User: Fold Ceramide kinase like from Latimeria chalumnae.
Amino acid sequence: GDTKASSQTKEQFIELKNTFAVKLKRRRSVGQQKGGTLLGITVFVCVEKGLKLKDQAIHLSNLSEDHCDMWFRHIKDILNGFQNRPKSLKVIVNPHSHKKESTQIYHEHIAPLFKLADIKTDITITEYEGHALSLLKECDLQDVEGVVCVGGDGSASEVAHGLLLRAQMDAGRDTDSIFTPVRAPLPLGIIPAGSTNILAYSVLGIKHPVTAAMHIILGRLQPVDVCTFSSHSQLLRFGFSAMFGFGGRTLALAEKHRWMPSNQRRDFAVIKTLANLKSEDCELSFLPLQNPKLLTQEYNRCLPKTNNTDQWKTIQGHYLNISIMAIPCLCSVAPRGLAPNTRLDNGSMALIAVQNTSRADFIKHLKRYGSLKNQFNFPFIETYTVQEVKVRPRPRSGWPDDIAEENVDFHSRRSSVISTEGAYPWNVDGYLMEIASEVHIRIHPQLINLYGRNIEDF
Ligand SMILES: *[C@@H]1O[C@H](CO)[C@@H](O)[C@H](O)[C@H]1NC(C)=O
Ligand SMILES: *[C@@H]1O[C@H](CO)[C@@H](O)[C@H](O)[C@H]1NC(C)=O
Ligand SMILES: *[C@@H]1O[C@H](CO)[C@@H](O)[C@H](O)[C@H]1NC(C)=O
Ligand SMILES: *[C@@H]1O[C@H](CO)[C@@H](O)[C@H](O)[C@H]1NC(C)=O
Assistant:
């Protein structure tokens, strides 16, 4: 950070709630480790410029050992008293994200801040996809007060999934059947260092690693809604957003070209999928958002699950692209978000379905995301506010409707053919999930805390 000497004449205020470290300042010669002439104390504060947070060192000159020591201890006591601020973190770095910058970003810009704030860190550099998940399933999290992920959406989503899965395991939940998940006990911090950073962007409003670090250090928590994705009542994944159709196919194609640099790969996949635009014949069943109070009570398990069977709605058609999002999904190309009509933490999901239309109109729709209003003002787009959705693709080649569904045993030979050849790509927070049958998505209000803020309130 910057160093700024306090002027003798100008008064300056330092808010203790924005202060995160204090040091005694001494003049030392090169290589000298101890002692030296006392110059005063330096306090480190977080300064805000719009959404951007930065660290700043403020030096207070004073040559008295007793005086400085008293101030040093006093400020230290106050800092130690802030309850939400983590004292130890598990840090998971994906060294392969984007331009392979994350290790450098962490060591150069983030680790020194954590050290200054006296936060103990235990770092794992991941070695393969799925490493973070297997680590979180079994590592000792007893003395950790938060988990930090350095990477893009793929890494962040894997860590969020891992944290939530671990919470269910620790609570003895059977994830093989429809269940009410328990909250993640540990908050998650995301240091954006990937090629897409929608998750980080949604709680920071900006792609800026130091801003993320400052929210973590100051312990600023934002509760966030999470979805469960399941099929045949089996949990597949925890996540925040999903795309089916165009969004899923684009990701599947990009994954097949991993050898390309990440930005190039995405553009290539978008262009190629657009050129080969295809609609998906499917049935969408959804439960429109009910009384939010009931939802919260159900979530707190004060009430048995309400019987909503008669309120489900079903629509059917040929869809080009379907988004199901629990959070607004802010990003640089969509400043109001890919799902501007939902909130981070209010217990609802946006279901946005794009019906078959011409390529030109579909492109017009995609471009409209960049504007500030009327994103969905096209006759071929339907939007709903929902709490549950089932997406059931109708098999392309004239198979009976239900073979990928209930009668797995009876049709086992044929349904395994479907699941290898007829799997549909889903994009869940940038993670590719290939599923042949119906996917059931449910929202769980405020299931995890992320370090950050609600951009809406800003
Ligand atoms: C469709 O796909 C694009 C790109 O993959 C995505 O950004 C967009 O939000 C998706 N959703 C809708 C409803 O068009
Ligand atoms: C959440 O916010 C959206 C958009 O403002 C609104 O449509 C929805 O009803 C809200 N959900 C709840 C549970 O209040
Ligand atoms: C829920 O309601 C439906 C129709 O309203 C009924 O058929 C079903 O038996 C009910 N289920 C339970 C568990 O009460
Ligand atoms: C989708 O729309 C395009 C362009 O309007 C049309 O050529 C195509 O046949 C439609 N596909 C389906 C399955 O309706």
